[in-house]
Specification:
The protein is of the alpha+beta class. It has helices spanning 7-13, 18-25, 58-68, 126-136, 192-206, 221-229; strands at residues 3-5, 33-36, 39-46, 49-56, 77-81, 92-105, 118-120, 151-156, 162-168, 176-183, 212-217, 233-245. The chain is elongated and about 60 Å long. 41% of the residues are buried.
């Protein structure tokens, strides 16, 4: 049986799970929430795209989403506990799958060599950010001109070259979120991204934003090690996908194919 939940019910049903707490604090539970078979799922519209998120049993999450697709037909995107796709009905197909992990911290990382060059960037820097992302991460989720970021941070070398960047894509004043962490190809393995991420994490916490959160592609072991060294904990592993009826036309805008390099975060 599927039961409708309020945001308060959602928090109670998950014993204050951090991912759920962040979703509620960010105002992400906008279009309903439900519980069923050991999972909770909520619907929301983010950047104009309706979709589902949830935690708990992969089987339960798949059951809830499959039952809701007819009621919320525009919500085709979903990020749910790893393994949920194995439990979908056979009359549904999956497009654009990606595995990703959600990480968070409330602890300031230590100051690192190289962090002295970190700073918040200004609009005049955005062309350099775009050039860096085009070079190493054309599939990045956030760009300076797409309206998804509040600000960007970066590190320049002694010659003024932007060698690392990241985006502040926080959705509330109390929780921080980082996206599109990237390092120039010629400057990798020198600790720039780690120094920048550590600097930004400390700035967020000093501003009263806690936790600091991020999502990273699950196959990026180098990024996982870096975030772990800064105190980030991986609490949930998800698979994001688009679910469609078997006769639904393909939507080429939903794929990430053709992007050989990706940012250190989604």
């Amino acid at each position: 049986m599927i039961e409708a939940l309020s945001p308060d019910d959602l928090l109670a049903a998950t014993d204050g799970d951090m991912y759920v707490r962040v979703a509620v604090a960010n105002g992400a539970v906008t279009d309903g929430a439900w519980a069923g078979d050991g999972a909770v799922v909520w619907a929301n519209t983010h950047h104009g795209r309706p979709g589902f998120a949830g935690v708990g049993s992969p089987h339960g999450a798949a059951t809830v989403v499959a039952a809701l697709l007819d009621e919320i037909p525009d919500a085709r995107r979903a990020s749910l506990p790893r393994g949920w796709l194995d439990h979908l009905p056979t009359d549904l197909r999956v497009e654009s799958r990606s595995d990703w992990d959600w990480m968070w911290t409330t602890t300031p990382p230590p100051s690192l060599p190289g962090a002295a060059g970190a700073r918040w960037l200004v609009p005049d820097d955005h062309d350099d950010v775009s050039a860096l992302l085009h070079e190493v991460s054309p599939g990045a989720s956030t760009w300076p001109d797409d309206g998804r970021s509040h600000r960007w941070a970066g590190i320049r070398d002694d010659d003024g070259v932007l060698v690392a960047c990241l985006a502040d894509t926080s959705r509330s004043a109390t929780v921080a979120h980082v996206s599109s962490v990237a390092t120039a190809a010629a400057h990798r393995r020198r600790g720039h991204a780690r120094a920048l991420m550590g600097w930004v994490t400390r700035r967020f916490l000093e501003e009263g934003r806690s936790p600091v959160t991020l999502g990273m592609y699950a196959d990026n072991d180098a990024a996982r090690g870096m975030y772990g060294s800064l105190g980030f904990t991986c609490q949930h592993t998800f698979t994001g996908a688009v679910v469609a009826a078997a006769t639904h036309p393909d939507d080429p805008t939903l794929t990430r194919e053709g992007h050989p390099h990706r940012a250190l975060t989604r």
